[in-house]
Each structure stands twice: as structure tokens, then as C-alpha cells.
Amino acid sequence: MTTLITGVAGFIGYHMAEALLSKGEKVVGVDNLNDYYDVALKRARLSRIGANPLFDFRKIDISDRFLVRELFNTLKPTTVVHLAAQAGVRYSLTNPHAYIESNINGFLNIIEGCKKSEVQHLIYASSSSVYGGNTVLPFSEDDRVEKPLSLYGATKISNELMARVYSDLYNIPTTGLRFFTVYGPWGRPDMSLFRFTKNIIANEPIDVFNDGNHKRDFTYIDDIINGLVAASNLVPSRPPDEPDKSISPPYQIFNIGNGRPVELLEMIKILENALGRKAKLNFMPRQPGDVHDTHANIELLEKMTGYLPKTDLETGISRFLAWYKEFYRIS
Description:
The protein is of the alpha/beta class. It has helices at about 10-20, 40-50, 65-75, 95-115, 150-170, 190-200, 220-230, 265-275, 300-305, 315-325, and strands at about 1-5, 25-30, 55-60, 80, 120-125, 175-180, 180-185, 205-210, 215, 220, 250-255, 260-265, 280-285.
């Protein structure tokens, strides 16, 4: 049993690898270590799992179809957890080609590898950004997703459609997970909690878009990993007596969030209290591409796996700050 994790040096990828390795499972990790954010942070994540004899790291760009094809031909993984992608809504406004290369071409290369290697289960990262301009909350997996507000969201909708086609045509079991604002230790520097923490400690102002008048379904990383592991064990299958395979492909989609959205200004207050400092707020208009509010309906994942997030925002921020101060050596 070998699990291939793409984006293994990333925030969620690193934690997923750590979780599987702790259970004694063999993991091959792939990452191109790009400089979208601090490469030193990515290497630090890798160093924590690199000494484990069950872990094998390959520096590969998933947009290179020949390298990906060779990887699958030699590795023949049992399960693929595909987390590599060009992340970030705002970055897509200035560097759109990166999203097509990684999120579309890269996804195609990975799912083609799954097809040819007869992978037993492909689990891939989608996003709450697929809900885009939807206004009915909480967001449910049954909602129509045809109003993305960003190219990033559009690529994630495309991934879900591609997965459904491959599940239908080639009987590949696929599971897409729509992540909702993941945060916690070893997080991404481009996310709001990370940026706010850095600036408040440095006594610099923080940019608060939409004047802070929006909500996010902040989800702690440990809860995300528990749900991700549970979903990866839930392999979808086509009913054997289903005459029309187009109706029931081995394909599933889950929201994976906290289910309790918090106003951005409330998150800032919690962060201020934890740091013992007041933030200098630089109120700004709503950023193009940003979803106004996010709220995950997590009933389906709970029903199918027993998923139940346990970490409130105060606890999660406290744990994040403990890591942040230690990692950056801040007293």
C-alpha cells in the first residue's frame, strides 16, 4: 500500500503525510517547491518528515506530463491524495497562467496517471471558492456551482467536472473535498491569520478588505486532516446493478469545514486578545474575486464518516500562535 501525496511540502499536504506516516503507512510525496511563498517554510515542513524511512520525496512539477507519467509508471500508487495546486484568489488576478498550468494541466496529468495505473482511489482538493456568487447559506454539495468569482474558483469547478468524467468513463473512484479557510500551525503565509499576526507583532497596519464585513468558516488543520483521512477511507463505487453508468459513477464531493462561520472583525479581536496587542486596521473595499461569506454544510461528511470538527477559533488561534512564536523565535 503506497499513498502518493502531491503538494506534500504545502500546508495540508505536510499534515496529511505526517498523519499517514504516524499510522505506519508508506508515503511518496511530490512537490515542485515553487516560490509562491517562503520556500524555507516548505523545506522546514519536509525536514520534519524527511527522516522517516516510510517517506520518499520527489521534486516534480505536476504540470510536466512526462515526469508525472514516469512517476506513475514506476511507483504505481494504491491511493493518490492530490493537493498540489496554485492557491490563492488574489494572486489569480495577476498571474492567471500559473493557475491553468498547475490546476488544469497538472490535474489532467495526475488523473491520467491514475487511469493508466489503475489507482484505487483519487482524493483531490477542491475549494469553497466554487460556490462563488451563491448567496444561500450554508453552502451545500447539492448547490449549483456556476458563478465563480475568481479564476481560482473556476479551476476548482473544472477539477470537479474532470473528475466526474474520468470516474464515469474509466471507473476511477474519485473524492473531491471542498476546503473552507484552513488555518493552524505550519500554515500558509498568504492567509489572513498569518499576515495579521506578522503585522500586529511588527506594529504595522493590517489590510481589512470589505471593511471587515464578511464571514469565513475557519477550520482548524487537525479537524481538516481527520476529515481528509476519513474521506480517503470511504472509497466510492458504482452500484453493480446500475444499468446506466452515467447516473452513478464512482464519484463523490464533500464540504469539509467547521460549520460555524465567524465575522472577520471577530477573528481579529480573538487574535488581538491572544497577542495582547491592538491591531492597526486599514479598512479597504472588497477585493475582486473574494466571496462575501462562507459557511459549510457538513452534514453529508458527518453522515458518511462521522466527521465532527472539535476546535473552536480561540483554541485554534492559540495553537497557531504558539507554533508561530516558536518557529520565528519570537518571545
